C-alpha cells in the first residue's frame, strides 16, 4: 500500500479559503472615496489689523440664514430653490442693472475683452442655531450657481463642459467667473445658542 | 449504466483549477493594498449631509478628520446628548483643536504641510454653533483648507 504513487494534494478548497479571506477584506475595509465641498477659510484677523475698506452695496450679495433655517437674501425672504437663480443673476448681471454688481472690461485669454463683474462678492452669514444640513445646502447652491455659469460659457466658447477643459482654459473661465464666497465673522443674531 | 462508462472513457480529464487560488489571492492582495481599514472607532454619530456639487478628496495622507455629532448611546451617560467633537479616538473641545492640528502637522512631511486639508465630518443635524467654533479654531491654527464632508444627494430642491 505504501508503495503506491502518492496522490496529488487536492487544492480545490484553497480557492474557497482565498475567497473567504477576500470577502472578509471586502467587508471590513473601506474604499471610502471621501467627497465633500472644499472651501478655504480666511486667515485669522489680527487685532491690530485695519478693517478692510467697505464694499459698495451693489457688489455684495448678502445671504443670511437664521436659526429656523430660513433664508434672507438681499433683505428678502427666499426659498432655497430660488437661491441658485438669484445668485446666477447676481454674478452675471446679464442686463447691466444698477443694483447688481458693476462690470469692468477685462482681457481674458481665449475670450478677448469681456465684461466681468470683478468686485462681486457673495457674503454668507449664519446663526449659531442654523442646522448644518441647511448651511451646506446653501453652500451647495452657491457653488452650483458658479458651476452652471462656468459650464454655460465653456460650452458656448469651447463646446465642452467646464471639467473637460484644459487647465489653461479653465483658468480663463475662472477669470470671468471668479468664485468669491465670503463668510462674515460669526455673530450671534437671534434665537437660541 | 454501460452508457455512462463509455462516455467517461472518451471525455477529457477534469479542468485544472490549480491557478484559481492564485487569481483569488491576487484579488485579495489588490483589496488589501488599495483599501484602508476603518481607522478610528467612532464615538459620535455622523450621518453625513447631502450635497450635489461634490469634489473628491485625493491623497489620504494629507487629510485630517474632525468628527462632530451626538455621542453614541453607550457614551451618552458620560458625555451627554449634545453634539460633541471627536478627534482621533477621544472626545474633545474646540480648544483642543489647535494642538491637535499642530500635532498632525508635525507628523506630516515638511513639503506636504501647506497642502494639509481638514475634513469636517459632521452630522447633518448639528447646530452651526459648534461648526463655527471649529472653523474659528482652525483659522487660529492656520489650517485653512477645509472640506465639508457630504455624500451625493439627489437634487436638493428640498425639504426646507
From TrEMBL, chain A:
Organism domain of life: Bacteria
Annotated keywords: Cell membrane, Membrane, Protein transport, Transmembrane, Transmembrane helix, Transport
A GO biological process held by the record: protein transport
Chief subcellular location: membrane
Localization (cell): Cell membrane
GO MF term set: transmembrane transporter activity
Keyword Cytoplasm attached: no
InterPro entries the record matches: ExbD (IPR003400)
Bilayer topology term: Single-pass membrane protein; Single-pass type II membrane protein
Leader sequence residues: none
Transmembrane intervals: 12-31
Single GO cellular component term: plasma membrane
Family: Belongs to the ExbD/TolR family.
PANTHER family in the record: BIOPOLYMER TRANSPORT PROTEIN EXBD-RELATED (PTHR30558:SF3), EXBD MEMBRANE COMPONENT OF PMF-DRIVEN MACROMOLECULE IMPORT SYSTEM (PTHR30558)
UniProt protein name: Biopolymer transport protein ExbD
Automatic annotation (TrEMBL), chain B:
InterPro entries with a match to the protein in the record: ExbD
Alphabetized GO MF terms: transmembrane transporter activity
Subcellular location(s) per record: Cell membrane
Gene Ontology CC annotation, any one: plasma membrane
TM regions (residue ranges): 12-33
A Pfam cross-reference name: ExbD
One biological process term in Gene Ontology: protein transport
Keywords: Cell membrane, Membrane, Protein transport, Transmembrane, Transmembrane helix, Transport
Membrane topology: Single-pass membrane protein; Single-pass type II membrane protein
Top-level taxon in the UniProt lineage: Bacteria
Record-stated family: Belongs to the ExbD/TolR family.
Protein name: Biopolymer transport protein ExbD
Organism, as annotated: Natronoflexus pectinivorans
Biological classification of the source: Bacteria, Pseudomonadati, Bacteroidota, Bacteroidia, Marinilabiliales
